[in-house]
Specification:
458 residues, Amino acid/polyamine transporter I, 74% helix
């Protein structure tokens, strides 16, 4: 009889519902990557950032479908780290889990940096690090509560973000066609003028790819959270299907409005491209309201990243790939010390806000994108290895299209991304840095296995 690829999660809470999972995926992905990172991407690539978003969106759809297939068949708090372990080997589970944890810690810092920078603009007498500290403490309390309360909080905050983005798309379309008072149709002036559609060439597209990869990162959290839902098999399938198309519409639609309405060279100025677009509409209070929504979005995403990092650390520790104290579960059903570890790194980001208040966001945005590419490759390889086994055992509830051909195509597209990134000096540096991090984590994984085996050899 074949070993059933499962992971014990019965000590965690189980209060998450389908609507929580769906909005959690949206909440974690609609954050700094969209509201602030989109301006960085447009400034780097010009209107051609649309190419990056479309290509990355196709890859994300395929990767999430593969991940949803594995997640609905084998719900686990470690999600793709667990699938890498049972599909590739113990070393892969260790490396992928801690690489993802590191990536989310970087995302966590980006979210709190973006939110605190905006709030500091409202309260000029208050230091940015003080605002960041207040936010970190607040979300520490939320994450230490039982998971159903966390899920409800994320549901409503993500719902606000979704509603506002829909409103932004409506106003944006009216702006494009000049249907608002005191506005004229924008035509293709900003899209094709100022250097053309690809003003920075393929090097610009390459520079924007890291930002785009970061922007789409986060929706994987639904497969981590599935282990704490009441019906994980059904919940994960529904959440993955709904999150993918919503993210695609929101991202590509929003970016299209931005590059049509704004001169691309100004997209990274001020409070971000969302506020800049709404300023063009000359609607009273709308731009100010959008700033508030951006803060809510960033804090909601920060909250989701604390959740994701704590569950990944908990899962890794349950398998012996992390310190044993991380497996401690509180009376509320949450991994207490794993949450506190994430909060600690939130405090580290507060220190960085004091040390590098202006440069920090760009540093973090760039550091994350290439790490996500490594993780996507692991997910695809895990799926290719696990799919035949899950099919034999009759566990498939959600299927990847045209297996294995689309899986191999996705791998090839990621390879193409890497080749393009190698043509840009900044992207090349980030790929190199992530490769070094990958080697370091691999070495730690090897050392961890040696230490775990050593008592048995004495």
């Amino acid at each position: 009889m074949s070993e059933t690829p499962t992971e014990s999660n019965d000590r965690l809470g189980s209060g998450l519902k389908v609507r929580h999972l769906t909005m959690m995926g949206l909440g974690s992905a609609i954050g700094a990557g969209l509201f602030l990172g989109s301006g960085v991407g447009i400034a780097a690539a010009g209107p051609a950032i649309l190419i990056s978003y479309v290509l990355a969106g196709i890859i994300v759809v395929f990767v999430m479908r593969m991940l949803g297939e594995m997640g609905s068949a084998v719900p686990a708090s470690g999600s793709f780290s667990h699938y890498a372990r049972i599909g590739i080997g113990d070393w892969a589970g260790f490396v992928m889990g801690w690489l993802y944890w590191f990536m989310l810690i970087m995302v966590l810092g980006a979210e709190i940096t973006g939110a605190s920078a905006i709030v500091t603009g409202w309260l000029p007498d208050v230091p940015q690090w003080t605002v960041a500290l207040v936010f970190v403490v607040l979300f520490a309390v939320i994450n230490l509560a039982k998971v159903s309360n966390f899920g409800e909080f994320e549901f409503w905050f993500a719902a606000i973000k979704v509603a506002v983005i829909v409103g932004f798309l409506v106003i944006g379309v009216l702006l494009v066609f000049g249907l608002l008072p005191d506005t004229e149709p924008v035509g293709t002036t900003n899209l094709l003028g100022n250097g053309g559609f690809i003003p920075e060439g393929f090097a610009g597209i390459a520079a924007g790819l890291l930002v785009v990869a970061f922007a789409f990162g986060g929706i994987e959290i639904v497969t981590i959270a599935a282990a704490e839902s009441k019906d994980p098999e059904r919940s994960i399938g529904f959440a993955v299907r709904s999150v993918v198309w919503r993210i695609s519409v929101f991202y590509v639609g929003s970016i299209s409005i931005m590059v049509l309405v704004l001169p691309w060279a100004t997209a990274d100025e001020g409070s971000g491209p969302f506020v800049a677009v709404l300023n063009q509409a000359h609607l009273p209070y709308v731009a100010g309201f959008m700033e508030l929504v951006v803060v809510i979005a960033l804090l909601s995403a920060f909250n989701a990243q604390v959740y994701g990092t704590s569950r990944m650390a908990y899962s890794l520790s349950r398998r012996g790939d992390g310190p044993a104290f991380m497996t401690h579960i509180s009376k509320a059903g949450v991994p207490l010390y794993a949450v506190l570890l994430s909060v600690f790194f939130g405090l580290v980001s507060v220190f960085l806000n004091w040390w590098l208040p202006d440069q920090l966001l760009t540093i973090l945005l760039n550091a994350v994108g290439s790490a996500l590419l490594f993780i996507w490759v692991f997910i695809i390889v895990s799926h290719l290895r696990l799919r035949p086994r899950l099919e034999r055992e009759g566990k498939l509830h959600l299927r990847m299209w045209l297996f294995p051909w689309l899986s191999y195509l996705t791998l090839a597209m990621l390879g193409g991304f890497v080749v393009i990134m190698l043509t840009d000096s900044d992207a090349r540096a980030q790929l190199f840095a992530t490769t070094v991090l990958f080697v370091i984590i691999s070495a730690l994984g090897f050392l961890n296995r040696r230490l775990r085996r050593s008592p048995a050899t004495v």
